[in-house]
Amino acid sequence: MTKLFKIRRLLSSVLHKYNYSTAAKSMPTVKINSTEFISDDYTNVTPKIISYLGRNLHLQNDNPLSIVRQRIVQYFYKSFTHRGKPTFSVYDNLSPIVSTKQNFDDLLIPVDHPSRAKSDCYYINKDMLLRAHMTAHQSELLRSGLNNFLMIGDVYRRDEIDSTHFPVFHQLDVVRSQRKEQLFPNHPDLDIFEPTFDKERPHLFTNTITDPTKQSCHTLEATKLMEAQLKNHLIGLVQVLFGDDIKYRWVDAYFPFTHPSWELEIYYENNWLEVLGCGIVRNEILANAGPNNTIAYAFGLGLERLAMALYKIPDIRLMWSQDSGFLTQFQNKELNAKITYKPVSVYPQCTNDISFWLPENITIDTFMSNDFYDLVRDIGGDIIEQVKLKDKFIHPKTKKHSLCFSIVYRHLERTLTQAEVNKIHKDIENAIVSAFNVVIR
């Protein structure tokens, strides 16, 4: 190799590295937990939402979410054992940053499903997002060889703002799978799969869900036995949580990743309250994850919904409170103790309205309310108790579209003055003018 050629190759290498690093530095990024992610037109995660990562309320002993988590885990540990050891393993510290493949594709969620929309999810970029459900980890745990496991953690969804909705909440998901000999220990003549299903080449079989009672690959006996086990286990769970006398009912449901599917509702404070969704795992998910010799059920529930019902907590924001008056009510208590939350004090609300004309290319039907809610929460933080759409208006002459929202401000730990609320409200007005090109009325 000539000296000149060596110099040229070295210079080319240096220029390539320089150009690459310069290009990378010039691209906008999002920093999450010391990791830089390239952002794009899908990016909608906000600094406020990122600030919630790592709080892990479900692992903080004095938090009601942790108490509910421990009670459910304890129920599964006691209900399922093998040779004196728990059958289920627990995963409660999985990273909330997942790929779109994990969150959607692995779970057979169609590309046009509304749950993929930017208005519903917090995207880091088009390939990565903050998980919208704990089920996002199901396939990776199945691929690792696990059969029975619980997944617990924080999940992120864009939503309205009121006392029962928050952009971060906590889910507990469970998967239980069984082989033929486990499901039918005394009936070797029975099988999980229909005779037409080739267990050695499952991908050659087109599994359908047109039959409301079962997937086409499964025998009716296997599906019905799994359904009976699933429902008995979940009835036992809600009885442990709410008492043996709790009234319940099953409602047929649809989820892309299970079939058949159901929701369990309990009769609570004179209303039917949905507490979880469940079903028989789609066989395609199991086949893609590894050996296709099992049938599985799965369910998922929200810890906040259960905690608020069990302990009479009126506002979901209280789960994030650091106030000792809140936390001490749950300290050093027996797991199954009956606890009724008592307000430390009641601070008054402050309500301000905000009205604005939309740009000509946006209508009241195409305006993305969740974008507006995120911006309000970014500026107002956790003192935003509720945002309600108060009025829609189309000017009869100009045909301009207008929206009016009421923003309810309330601090959980002190009284807000109207002056400080007015300042925050003005900051919100300025921000939406800049972000959405609206005109304040």
From TrEMBL:
Its recorded reaction(s) are:
tRNA(Phe) + L-phenylalanine + ATP = L-phenylalanyl-tRNA(Phe) + AMP + diphosphate + H(+)
A Pfam match: tRNA-synt_2d
Q: Which domain of life is it from?
A: Eukaryota
The record's GO CC annotations read: mitochondrial matrix
GO MF annotation, one:
tRNA binding
What subcellular compartments does it reside in?
Answer: Mitochondrion matrix
Provide a GO biological process annotation. Answer: phenylalanyl-tRNA aminoacylation
Q: Which InterPro entries match?
A: aa-tRNA-synth_II, aa-tRNA-synth_II/BPL/LPL, Fdx_antiC-bd, Fdx_antiC-bd_sf, Phe-tRNA-synth_IIc_mito, Phenylalanyl-tRNA_Synthase
Fetch the PROSITE patterns from UniProt. AA_TRNA_LIGASE_II, FDX_ACB
Residue span, Aminoacyl-transfer RNA synthetases class-II family profile domain: 68-343
Protein's name in the database: phenylalanine--tRNA ligase
